[in-house]
């Protein structure tokens, strides 16, 4: 199973689960859903979400996507990140991990993550 990860609020995850798909604003505004590989998750979380306490980490099986997923370096960082070019069907989400920050506001990979 090829996995990618997406950070989302618990509330957004609950709504997406009830709908059966996830379609964040980035899909409309940029044309894709930002994702990360496991070794990128904490760096992204610490950069974008430091101190947020209501987050979960979606574990997504790439083989269950019915749209294109492309590894891209859109910001000339020298690093490729996976981008999902379409709605995320909830059936592709194989796990939802609680993703709380530590007391200092920083994140570490959940122990439930099966990388």
TL;DR of this structure?
The chain is α+β, with helices and mostly antiparallel strands and 115 residues long. Helices cover 23% and strands 31% of the residues.
The count of domains is 1
Helix fraction by DSSP (H/I, runs of at least 4): 10-25%
Oligomer: single chain
Strand order across the largest sheet: 1-4-8
Main sheet summary: 3 strands, antiparallel
3D shape? globular
Looking at CATH, the homologous superfamily is Protein of unknown function DUF952
Helix/strand/pairing class, anyone? alpha+beta
- Spell the H/E element sequence: EHEHEHEEEEE
Query: So, CATH architecture?
Result: Alpha-Beta Barrel
Name the average pLDDT: 94
CATH class: Alpha Beta
- As for the CATH topology, it is ADP-ribosylation fold
Total of helices: 3
What integer value in Å does the Rg equal?
A: 13 Å
